[in-house]
Write a structure and sequence with these properties.
The termini are far apart. The protein has about 270 residues and is of the alpha/beta class. Helix 1 packs parallel to helix 2, helix 2 runs parallel beside helix 3 and helix 3 crosses helix 4. The strands form two sheets. Strands 3-4-5-6-7-8-9-10 form an eight-stranded parallel sheet. A two-stranded antiparallel ribbon has the order 1-2. The chain is globular and about 55 Å long. Helix 2 links the parallel strand 4 and strand 5.
Length: about 270
């Protein structure tokens, strides 16, 4: 099942991952996902389940080097020393010597704070604790600060992304700058009652979640569907080997409501 995308730094990442937000006992979800073809787990310190991710990885029987694991530092730790301490704690929690990707969780806290945190992550990369560094919930202006500071650009920007909230200015900026866009909340938190989604679900004989994940993949995003139910984790990954026709993609594209369509905190506009 594993298709991959190559970062600007040369590392590769699977094009689909399991999200573990609001799943404090996520070891079982991680094990099920990894034993059914997933090769990426998207975590964060804020989720308080880094230890559980490590347990699930070890229980899966899949080699650590074949799994792509992400975590994120929350804005409450956005100083250089705070971020470095958080990163070291994350590595200890995981029970592995490194993360494949580590992100600043948002741009909250102001320019100086987020640049200090980002610098710490780059040093963590230099020290072998992280393979790649990225950001989450950043708009173009936040990423431009990184460029203006003369720092290595992020390989990823993870934002809320689904047909109702398509983040077009951010997506366009990231494409121009060779930054991979990861999509969190691609499943609308289960709000599948839209008639277009229902119509396509029937037409393709796929469940609504599969339609949403497939839309994300065809748009060139890397979706991170979240579930704690084994059967849903498995079906959410059955999104390869078929495609949505261009006319139907256009119907989904037309659902965009911009920021009004957001279903999470989506803090991309902070100063």
């Amino acid at each position: 099942m594993v298709e991959t995308v190559t970062f600007s730094d040369g590392h590769t990442m699977p094009t689909l991952g399991l999200g573990v937000y609001m799943n404090e006992e996520c070891a079982e979800a991680c094990r099920v996902a990894l034993q059914n073809g997933y090769r990426m787990i998207d975590g964060a310190r804020y989720y308080e389940n880094e230890v559980q991710v490590g347990v699930g990885v070890r229980q899966s029987g899949v080699k650590r080097e074949d799994i792509f694991i992400t975590s994120k530092v929350f804005h409450s730790d956005f100083t250089y020393d705070g971020t470095m301490a958080a990163l070291k704690d994350s590595v200890a929690n995981l029970g592995s010597s490194y993360y494949d990707l580590y992100l600043t969780h948002s741009a909250i806290g102001g320019k100086d704070a987020r640049l200090a945190a980002y610098r710490a992550l780059l040093d963590g990369k230099a020290n072998g604790l992280i393979k790649s560094v990225g950001v989450s919930n950043y708009s173009a202006k936040h990423i431009e600060e990184i460029r203006e500071a003369g720092l290595e650009m992020p390989v990823v920007n993870q934002v809320e992304l689904h047909p109702f909230c398509q983040q077009k200015p951010i997506v366009e900026y990231c494409k121009k700058n060779n930054i991979v866009v990861q999509a969190y909340s691609p499943l609308l938190r289960g709000a599948f009652d839209n008639p277009v989604i229902q119509e396509l679900s029937i037409k393709y004989s796929k469940d609504p979640a599969q339609i949403l994940v497939r839309w994300s993949l065809q748009r060139g995003f890397v979706p991170l569907p979240k579930s704690s139910h084994p059967e849903r984790i498995i079906s959410n990954g059955q999104v390869f080997g078929w495609s949505i026709e261009p006319t139907d993609m256009a119907k989904l594209d037309a659902l965009d409501r911009g920021k009004e369509g957001a279903i999470t905190w989506n803090p991309v506009d902070v100063d």
